[in-house]
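Input.
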Amino acid sequence: MIKIFHLSFVLISIISFVSRVVLSETHPELLKKKLFKIAPHVVDTLLMLSGIMLVFQGAWLTAEYGWIIAKIVALTGYIGLGVMTMRNRGTVRWLAFGGAMTCFVYIGIVAVTKNAFFFL
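Output.
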């Protein structure tokens, strides 16, 4: 059941991020509303909490589960690049957006394969 919640929050989070990027280009005044400022933080907090619950439920805190560390590092990159995306304009925004989406895809592939170095 926790996995379903986690995957739901993943989907909501990525849709929210892409939607906010589109809104920042088309209707930036909407992003100043309270809902658009608070909702992403609530969703991402629930996403992280469900992920932490899955780690403990699966007893994945041993060294053989290094792929979880890779996901956490990539998540940090995704968050940082997401902040850059929302705070910048022009080429910097789109490079950061591309980097954030790359991190997101990497996290997804690692989650499925359980291999941080799937590309080797």
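The mean pLDDT is 91.
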